[in-house]
Structures are given as C-alpha cells and as structure tokens.
Design a protein that fits this description.
The complex is a heterodimer of chains A (about 120) and B (about 900). Chain A has helices at about 1-30, 35-45, 55-65, 90-115, and strands at about 30-35, 70-75, 80-85. With about 120 residues, chain A is of the alpha+beta class. In chain A, strands 1-3-2 form a three-stranded antiparallel sheet. In chain A, helix 1 (about 1-30) packs across helix 3 (about 55-65) and helix 1 (about 1-30) packs across helix 4 (about 90-115). Helices cover about 55% and strands about 15% of the residues of chain B. The chains are: A alpha+beta (about 120), B alpha+beta (about 900).
Chain lengths: ~120, ~900
C-alpha cells in the first residue's frame, strides 16, 4: 500500500518540526484552539502548510502527554465551544532549546548549501 | 537530552495511564474534531461560501473525523495493549462460537501436556533428577563392577592406589553409607539416622562448602578411630538441633560415642544419593565406631568393597582417557593382588550413567513412559493442527473479507495468533491439572522406612516448559496457516472460492494415516492395560506366599550401641523370649531380612558337585538369618524336611533351609534335603540342607521365583534383626507394647521399622501395582480419546467439504441411509486399518510385559483373545459414535440449501 507508506513518511518528517511550530505559535499568540493553530500555520506558510486533523490532533495530544502544553475546554469569540491549548513552563523550556537547535541546524545547512553553490 | 528523556517518559506514562482507564474518552476527542470542522466552516462562510458547502469544504480540507479518531486512539493509549485486548475479546468470541472445536482442541492439548509433565516428572524423580551439587552432570563414579547390582564399588586399599596413581581426576573421594543411633546428649534416647562416612576431601571433590563452620582437615582422615568430628546435614541440624549455630564445637552422640560438630552442610545439599537425605558426614577413618566388630578390616582388606569413589575429571581430560587410565591401573592391581582383584575391571561412569546401570528396569520403564508421552503430545498437536486446518478454508474467506474492508495484514496475523494462543494456553492450564493429578497418583508410592529416604514427586519444570513451548509453537504455526493463505491469495478469488476447491488432497491422506496410527497406538495401550490389570490382579489374588495379617514387626541393631557379637546375640534371644511371654502375642520370631522390605542380603554358595561355568566358582543368592519360630510365625510352610530347631546352635553341625526355587535350580528331580553346599566361597564351610520351604515373594509382588536360602540364627550371627510377632488381635495396637520390650532391655537402643505386615505389603506391592495399572490404563484411555477426537475432526472436515457433493447425491436420488453408510464407511475404514495394526502389534505386548515385570504376567491364549476382543469392541464402538455424528449431519443435508450455500 504505497499511499499509506508515503503518508506515514511525511508525518514522520513533520513530527519534529510540527511540535516546534505548535509550541512557537502558542508561545507567540497565547492560548489557542486547534483550528486557530492550523489556520495560523496555513497563513504563515502562505497556504503551503495545510494540516490534516489526523496529523494536528495527535500532535497536540502528544505534546499534552509530554506536559509541554495543557488543553482545556473554553468558548471562542463566536461563542462556540472549543478546546484551548496553552504552553506550559516545561513547554517554554523545550521551545527555547529546540529553537536554538533548529537555528544551529539551519545555519549549518545554510553554510553547506551556499558552499555547494 | 535528559529533559527529552523525561518528556518521553511522561508521554509513555500518560499513555499507560490512558490504557489503564484515565483517558479522554472517544466522545470528548470527537467533540474537539467536530468543533474544528465547525470553526473551519464558520471561517469559510465568512469568506462568502454558502453554509451548505462550507462544512463539506472544511471536511475535505481537514480530513475525515474517522481517520483522525483512529490516529488519536493510537496516540492516546498503548496501541499494542489496546489491540491485544481487542484481539483477545474477538478471539474469545470466535472460540465461543465453535465450542466443539475449542473443547476438543483444549482437551487434546491438555492430555498431551499433562502426559508429558507426568512422564517426565516420574522420570525425574526416579532416575534423572540431578544431585544437589554444582555442575552435577560432571560428577563421576569409579570402581570395580559388582556383577550382581551393576554398581561400582571399591575397597579402601584399591581406592588409595587409584587415587594416588591416576592423573585424570581433579580429586577423588570415597564414601560409604552408614546408619547410626543419634542422641543429642548422653541421657537422651537414641534415634536411628543415616549418614555418609567420607574421605577428608569429599566436600572439595563434590564441590560443596559447609555453610557453617569448616570442612574436614586433611589430618582428620589419617588415623583410624581418632578424630571424632562430624559435619551435620542442614535438614538434620534444623530439625533435630533447632538450627542452633552454637552447636559448632559441641558434641553430639553417634552410636554412643561423642562426635564434635565442626560444620553444617549447606541447605539443599542432601548428599550424593538420589533418594537418601543424609543427616551427617563423618570421616571414613571413624568407621570402627560405626562397625565395632569389623574393626579396621575395611582399611586393610582389598576384598571389602563397600566404598563408592566419586570425583570430577581434571581439566582437558576426556572420559575415554580416564577410562583407559583406570583400565591400566585395574590390570596392574589384578597382577599385584590376584587373590582379591581377579576379574577386577575398573570402570568410570558419570553419576547418571551409574544410576541407570543400577536400575535397568526403572530405566526401561522411564524410557517407555517418556516415549509414550512424547507420542501422545505429538498426536495431540497433530489433532489440533488437523482441527485448525479443517477450519482454514472458512477462516480464509473471513480473512479475505476483513482484508477487503481495510484491515492490515499484520493485524490479521496477530488476530489468528491470539486465537491459537488462547487455545494453547487453555490447553496448558488444563494440562497442568492433568499433570498434577498424575503426580498425586505417583506420590502414593512411598518407600516405608524410618530413615529420611524420600521419593518426592514434583512437577518437572523442564518438562513443563518443554510441553508448553511445543503446544504453543504448534498451535501458533498451524493457526497462522489461514492468515498466510489469506495474505497470498487474490481477494476476489478467495471470497468467491468454494470450500470444495481441490487443494489439500495429500494432507487428507496424511491425516488418515495419522488417525489410523492413533487408533493402533490406543489399541496397544488398551491391550497392555488389560493385560497388566489382569496379571496384577491375579498376582495380588494369589498373595505373597506368606501371611500378612496379625503380624507386627520392628527392627533393632544393637551394634549401634557398640554391643559385642555375643552381647548382640544375647540381646536378640532375650527380646524374642520376652515377646513370647507377652499377652496378645501368639508367637514371635527373629529374622535378618523382612520380606518386602528392600533388598535381601546375599550369600555366595557352592552346591556340592555342581559344575559352574568357567570363571565362576560360586553363586550369590538372596538369604536371611532366622530363628526356629520364623517359618511358623510368618506362615511359610516347610515342604520337605524340617524347620530350624533351637538345637541348631553354634556347636551343632551347620544347617540351612532352602526354598523350592533354589532346590529346583541345583537338585532338580532329587530331594534337596540332605544335600550339602559350601558358603562364603569355594573354601568355605560345608552346610547341610535340612528343609525345603515354599517359595514366596521376597522383594516385590511381581518378581519371578527367586532362589532363597535361610540360615539359623544361632549359627550365623547378625548385626541387626527384625522381631516379628503374630498377635491374637489387631497388631497395630501392640506397637507400644513391643517398643517397651526393647526399652526394657536397653533404653538407648534406636527402634526402627515399627509397622504391621499388612501395611508393609500394601505399600510395597498393592499401591505400586495400582499406580502402574492406573497409569497405563489412563494412557490407554487418553490415547483412545485422542484417536476418537482425531477421527471426529477428520470425518467432520470431510463432510463439511463435501456438503455440496452430498447435496447433489441426495438430489439425484441417493437415500439418506446410503449417504450415512458412505461417510461412516470411510471413517471406519481408517479405524479398521488402525485396529488391525494395533492388534498385530499387541501380540508383542505379552512378551514385553513379562520382560519388564515377571514371566507370570503372560496370560494363556484364550485369555489373550478375550482381551483383544474386549479392546477391539470398545474401540469400534467409540469410533462408530465419533464417525456417526458428522455422518448423520451429512445424511441430513438439505440438497437445495447445500447447492445454494456456496
């Protein structure tokens, strides 16, 4: 089943970066529900990153299980019930170190790719 | 790094907690997903989409709720555990839906596993259990072969030569068993104990360190009778001395002499014997204290072979090298000491080989049982395999269906394995119960002695693990077959295919042979059980040849208190006299050997004028030393001549009484009375036969007639004697009185073996025979059950595959009776073939049984034929029922339904 395998591979690549994106979004914008996070990522990427619920929500659950974010039911501006996620102290620490790691990594990649060119 | 580790840990504890129950439930997760879609739709509406389309667009963008839920469920708990729980539930439901299949599979496996547990536990107890020493398989036994017991033994002088000259061994130690009267202090009454007298390096050689105190010192093994030190057995120390560590350095009394306790053996070390749990270890040099009359002869005479030599091979030496070195040493000893070491070939064996060599009937029995049990397990597994295979086509369609609706192949395989495991595990659990029941049965066999000699039957762990692994492996392998088939086949074809698809013809053939073979084996087992039962019942009915009722016995060995020979003799006489004067005792007698109580002592005799084969100058025969009242008290008739008289005393001419078997062996057709033989070898004194006694059973109810010779107590002193009393009332009620008789003569003398003859005979013969009969009988029933189950499975399978064909036959006019006959006939053909093969093989059962038990096990031809007929009828009846059930189903096939079904 090639489709399935491809989907899984994509999800695996995404997993590390997706965690970072979600943490960064929550740190920047404060408490958000799942749709708002997805919409924000879509907006920032100019529509390139359209998250499936089957990718986004397991990621949120994983972060919650790790104690990096905390989710609670709340009400949106339009009076709809939704589950809002907030970053925890542990989440901020994780974000800091992951961010540094990411920047170090991109710097290396940058240097390497430029060199190549 | 650590932070990430902690995070991962938290994730997994969170998942575990969710699995265990604390979780967001599905409804909550779904609510969140729906909220997401609604928010997305709201957004789309805001951008100007019509509300009806907005929600659909949102759903298309964000993916389906169902898939997201599946991903969330996977993330939420431990997917493996969740799946397992689901598989288990589903598996249980599947198994419950076909209770017949489940029950038959479980029972088959239970029988297979139970039989193996029982057989190997039996083997373990009687033969195979390793000694409680480090690396027990490396322990060796060396010495000269005793042709009568096939044991390896050595004299002390030979041991010293072997020890000093051999280079093949790490260390060689020697030991001998001895009983002793033990008393904690001078004034305490003595109790009978058994211990090992060992050379100083014994503990070093077997590889055991005393748990408390110290090992023997080398100098404690040099001077006969000087170093009265003792190392206590752990069990003895705990039970008799309250596990008091302060006992070190204090003295206990053995045979009336003080021995200083220097150590305590580690817990679990019970000595170097399979059954005896030794209570103390003393230096071999203390032998004179344990055999006062023998003095120091043990240390000087090369023909006093009562030692066992044990040790381990030195590094890089093979058994063959050790054996060739011993052969050389043996030949040298033979040249140097021709008078004592003639034919003295030296052998080395592993300790296990030695055990097997010493008990060939046990080894045969154990091998037979083990082979049977393995066969039973094989048949059980084959049965289950057959049953599962017969369901495979049906399952294959189910699997194809599930694959088609999107199940992963891995999940299907897991599902099937789970089902097989369920069957295997239920079988194992029930099998354990069967094994435990068998062990409870075996445990009825106990050797009736006062000494700590035990046969502990316990579930053998290795056998258990082996059986469970075989059962699970076979169930899983066979269970996988439908999954593999499903994974291979093209879905549409599999779903369309009818069961009648032609594959598997060869397997069918194999299964037929298997069922036939099972029937044959069951027949042999049942014939055997019938023979055994009949033979045993006949032997038990005919009795042991002596009276067993109204008899009470006890044994004493005054030498344990260092009585001299004359004092011992006097003690026995006074004991017999006082017993005869006791009210309630009709008559009393003395005997060295009590029938049914272990192995009788043997005496070498040389009948006058008898030509022995070359190389042999005498014959060893079982013997006893009895007084003048023995034959009358035990109820053994004197057939010719006379019984002993008080006048057959030391000064009178030496006389003996032989049994009929011995008389027939040497003086067949002549009167034995008046004949003479020499005792104790070709230069020994002449003894005249004054009577011939009836041959009785001596050691076991099934033994062949055994030549036996009796000597008068007044002419041949003995160290230990039984007092045998015939009572007017219940013999057990006089036990205390008889103990008092001994105490009145010497309060310190240990009394042993206080029991009635009824009890001894029951324990030594009746119980053993009952257990053997029950074992073989239940194996026969198990074998038959398995064969019938196999037959049923096969016929049912054939019917289920031929439903359509049968439907057609009925539709075109075949009568139901005819269909019934066709199916039954095919089933019974296999049974008939198996039955014939089994009956043919059963012709060998009679000779086999007589070789194992006794020549008298053979029945006459007419009785054999009736046993054969009985078994054949039983097997046929059972088989007919097993085949009839599916055959009736076939006959009831409704042609219209059968044709429409596929």
């Amino acid at each position: 089943m090639p489709n399935r395998d491809k989907a899984r591979a994509k999800a695996d690549v995404l997993q590390g970066t997706l965690d970072l994106m979600v943490l960064q979004t929550l740190a920047a914008l404060g408490s958000q529900h799942g749709y708002a996070i997805a919409a924000r990522l879509e907006q920032v990427s100019s529509g390139a990153l359209r998250l499936n619920m089957g990718t986004l929500y397991p990621a949120l659950m994983r972060l919650e299980q790790r104690g990096l974010i905390r989710g609670d039911w709340g009400v949106t501006d339009t009076s709809r019930k939704a589950r809002f996620y907030a970053i925890t102290a542990a989440g901020r620490r994780e974000l800091r170190s992951e961010k540094a790691e990411w920047q170090r990594m991109t710097a290396i990649m940058q240097a390497l790719l430029q060199d190549e060119a | 790094m650590i932070a990430r580790l902690i995070a991962a840990l938290r994730e997994w504890t969170g998942r575990a907690a969710a699995t265990a129950g604390r979780r967001r439930d599905d409804a909550d997760l779904e609510r969140e997903l729906r909220a997401h879609l609604e928010l997305a739709a709201e957004e789309a509406e805001r951008r100007g989409q019509p509300p009806a389309r907005a929600l659909r667009t949102a759903a298309l963008d964000a993916g389906g709720v169902a898939q997201a839920m599946e991903a969330l469920r996977d993330q939420r708990g431990l997917p493996w555990v969740d799946d397992l729980a689901r598989d288990l539930r589903y598996g249980c439901r599947m198994l419950a839906r076909s209770p017949g299949f489940t029950a038959i599979s479980v029972i088959s496996l239970a029988i297979g596993i139970g039989a193996n547990c029982a057989a190997f536990s039996f083997a373990d107890t009687l033969l195979l259990r390793p000694l409680p020493v480090p690396r027990p398989s490396e322990l060796l036994v060396a010495g000269q072969v005793n042709p009568f017991e096939d044991s390896l033994e050595s004299s002390y002088r030979d041991f010293l030569d072997i020890r000093d000259r051999s280079r093949s061994f790490e260390a060689l130690a020697a030991y001998t068993k001895s009983t002793a009267g033990f008393a904690a202090s001078v004034d305490a009454p003595a109790k009978l104990t058994i211990g090992l007298l060992v050379t100083g390096n014994f503990f070093h050689a077997v590889g055991v360190q005393p748990q408390l105190g110290r090992d023997f010192r080398p100098d404690e093994d040099h001077v006969p009778g000087r170093d009265a030190v003792v190392i206590l057995g752990h069990e003895f120390w705990t039970q008799q001395l309250g596990a008091d560590p302060a006992i070190l350095g204090r003295a206990i009394r053995l045979n009336g002499a003080a021995f200083t306790v220097v150590g305590v053996a580690p817990a679990g070390f019970t000595g170097v014997d399979q059954f005896t749990r030794f209570q103390f270890y003393a230096p071999l040099m203390m032998w004179p204290r344990f055999a006062p009359d023998a003095g120091t002869r043990l240390f000087e005479a090369r023909d006093d072979r009562r030692l066992t030599i044990t040790g381990r091979l030195a590094a890089a030496v093979t058994m063959a090298q050790a054996q060739s070195e011993l052969t050389t040493i043996g030949a040298d000893l033979e040249r140097a000491h021709p008078e004592t070491n003639r034919n003295g070939r030296l052998l080395v064996r592993t300790e296990l080989q030695n055990r097997i060599a010493q008990a060939p009937p046990v080894a045969t029995l154990v091998a037979m049982l083990a082979a049977l049990a393995l066969g039973v397990l094989f048949v059980a597994c084959a049965n289950v395999a057959g049953l599962i295979a017969s369901r495979a086509p049906m399952r294959a369609r189910e699997m194809a269906m599930r694959l088609a609706i999107g199940a992963g192949r891995g999940r299907l395989v897991r599902q099937l394995v789970t089902e097989s495991l369920l069957v295997a595990m239920a079988g194992c659990a029930l099998g354990l119960a069967v094994g435990a029941a068998a062990i409870a049965l075996f445990s009825q066999i106990q050797i009736p002695v006062d000494l700590p000699i035990t046969t502990v039957f316990a579930l053998d762990r290795r056998a258990l693990v082996f059986s469970i692994v075989v059962a699970i492996a076979s169930a899983v392998l066979v269970g996988l077959a439908p999954a593999v088939r499903a994974a291979r086949t093209d879905l549409t074809a599999a779903m369309k295919a009818t069961d009648a698809a032609g594959h598997g013809g060869r397997r069918q053939w194999g299964r037929r042979v298997l069922v036939g073979g099972q029937v044959a084996v069951a027949v042999v087992l049942l014939v055997m059980a019938t023979f055994v039962y009949r033979g045993f019942a006949r032997e038990l009915r005919s009795g042991p040849g002596f009276a067993t009722d109204h008899l009470l016995m006890l044994s004493v060995a005054p030498k344990q208190l260092r009585y001299s020979e004359a004092q011992t003799q006097q003690f026995f006489e006074r004991l017999a006299v006082s017993a005869r004067q006791t009210p309630g005792i009709v008559s009393a007698a003395l005997t060295r050997y009590m029938p049914m109580d272990g192995v009788p002592p043997s005496t070498a005799i040389v009948p006058e004028g008898f030509e022995f084969p070359p190389g042999q100058d005498s014959a060893l025969h079982a013997s006893s030393i009895v007084d003048e009242d023995y034959f009358a008290t035990l109820g053994v008739p004197i057939l010719q001549g006379r019984a002993f008289r008080a006048a057959d005393a030391a000064a009178a001419p030496p006389v003996a009484i032989v049994n009929e078997a011995l008389a027939n062996r040497y003086w067949s057709g002549r009167t034995a009375v008046g004949q003479r033989f020499r005792i104790d070898g070709p230069r020994g004194p002449w003894v005249e036969i004054v009577g011939v006694a009836r041959t009785t059973k001596y050691t076991f109810a099934l033994e062949n007639p055994k030549p036996f010779v009796y000597f008068p107590f007044r002419q041949r002193p003995a160290d230990s004697m039984f007092l045998l009393a015939r009572t007017s009332g219940d013999p057990a009620s006089l036990a205390a009185t008889c103990r008092e008789l001994v105490r009145a003569l010497d309060v310190n003398l240990p009394i042993a073996n206080v029991r009635t003859m009824d009890e001894l005979y029951r324990m030594r013969s009746v119980v053993v025979l009952d257990v053997i009969t029950a074992t073989i009988g239940s194996m026969g029933v198990m074998g038959l059950t398995l064969a019938i189950v196999g037959l049923y499975g096969l016929v049912a399978y054939a019917v289920s595959r031929r439903t359509k064909e049968i439907g057609i036959r009925i539709a075109i006019g075949a009568g139901r009776w005819r269909v019934l006959r066709m199916v039954l006939g095919q089933g019974l053909l296999m049974v008939a073939a198996g039955l014939a093969a089994g009956l043919l093989a059963s012709l060998g059962v009679g000779p086999l049984l007589s070789s194992i038990f006794s020549s008298r096990m053979k029945g006459d031809a007419r009785a054999d034929a009736s046993a054969f007929a009985l078994v054949a009828a039983a097997v046929l009846a059972a088989a007919a029922i097993a085949a009839y059930i599916p055959a009736r189903r076939a006959a009831r096939v409704n042609p219209t339904e059968a044709l429409r079904a596929e």
